[in-house]
Amino acid sequence: MADGSLASGLRRATTAVLAPERWWIAVIAIFAASRVVTTSILLAFASVQGSNAWTGPKPDYFSFAKIWDGHWYYIIALAGYPSELPLDEAGHVAENAWAFMPGYPAVVRFVMTLTTLDFAFAAVVVSVGFALGAALVFYRLMNRVLPSSSALFAVAIFCFAPLSPILQVAYAESMALFLLILALYWLMKHQYWMLLPVIAVMSLTRPSGLAFALAMGLHVVYRWWVRDRDGFPRGEVVAAISATMFSLLMGFAWLLIAAAVTGSLTAYTDTELAWRAPYIGHVELVPFTAWFQAAGFWQLWWNIPQWVLSGVLVVAVLGFFGFLFSRPARRLGVDLRLWMLSYSLYILAVFFPQSSTFRLLMPMFPIAGVFAQPKSPTYRILLLLACVAGQVGWVHIAWWVDNYDWSPP
To answer: According to Swiss-Prot or TrEMBL, what is its membrane topology (predicted)?
Structure first.
């Protein structure tokens, strides 16, 4: 009897937590469970971490959480940006803080000032706080296009995803994702004026303004195309076009700020190119060429002909665009698919593929809504286990520092 009463009580408690009107409790529970898993994985790797450029052996969690780009955010939070661009021995712009936007380190610095916490603690607090906010808003976003149970599982995929450890370290991703999810939520509700402050901060947190401007532009075209069926009032036309133009402006804002401070019109792009120089040397930024340049580099590493890698890229791109028209993807609605299309074009245009590319693909998070649609319990359990295994693999390959490490996160 006691066992039966306990089981009955657990069922009632589970039903109460998962009730649609208490969605936020379920989201918080999923998020908390995911952080226990991810923290355990990071602590396990920290316990065997050797001395490296940022820490001594076996660092504590917070020291382990601020390595890699976290150190750049630490420099920015404490010292800001250089007024003169550093140069290497050949006279090329070297890696420097201008590659990292000010939104996240500014918030971390505010928390440091408010609480007297040091950078590592404050950065983790800010990242985890924004990650929880992202999970909560993500449920609301998914619940606009999916049933509540599928929306909750999409949140679980988001929280347990292979790259979810990045949500609790000294990186800007959790803040950027929160702002992006909020922006897409306002976009889907046609609350265009609400987008402006979100776009402003989002565009100064991670590079996103130009991609979002393209998505907004396509959204305006689509709404105009179906105006006879769905309506497109004049006030919304003005607001939507204004938000599109504002996002386009903010897409260039950081380039202009870097140029104004350093006196170099190409300060930001030259700084970004410094990170790909070890792979392909110093080259000009020509849109849509970096992926084919990478094929030339990786053919030497993998001993695969460049034309094969280029062909795989073309097939993958065409396959992804075809996937956006599949029935599961269509259930996400037009706006989320327009965002994934726009961001994928942006990535193809300006980014150089290497190990950080997986992190740069995180804004494609609406795809979790596709994987969340099958309702088989076995499928869902296996998918979450695969996500956890992916976390272990990603931390081992990209975060954990193993001697000379060519695979940064």
So the answer is: Multi-pass membrane protein
Cβ neighbours for 325, distance < 8 A, ≥ 6 positions apart: none
**CA 231 to CA 391: how far, in whole Å?**
45
Instruction: Single out the residue of 270, 261, 280 nearest to residue 91, CA to CA.
Output: 270
Q: Which two tokens mark 390?
A: 């992916």
CA distance 263 to 266: 9
pLDDT tens-digit readout, 99-117? 999 999 999 999 999 999 9
Distance CA 239, CA 218 (A): 14
Buried (b) or exposed (e) across 245-276, using 16+ Cβ within 10 A?
ebbbebbeebbebbbebbebebbbbbbbbbeb
Residue 230 CB burial class (10 angstroms; 0-12, 13-18, ≥19): exposed
- Where do we find the tokens 């069922």? 11
Full-model pTM: 0.93
Local confidence band at 8 (pLDDT 50, 70, 90 cut-offs):
low
According to DSSP, residue 166 is labeled G
**Looking at residue 1, what is its pLDDT?**
45
% of the chain exceeding 90 in pLDDT: 79
Beta partners for residue 87, in sequence order: 93
Query: What residues pair up with 93 in beta bridges, in sequence order?
Result: 87
354-381 burial: b if 16+ Cβ within 10 Å, else e: bebebbbebbebbbbbbbbbeeeeeebe
105, two tokens = 């380190």
Residue 188 pLDDT > 90 = yes
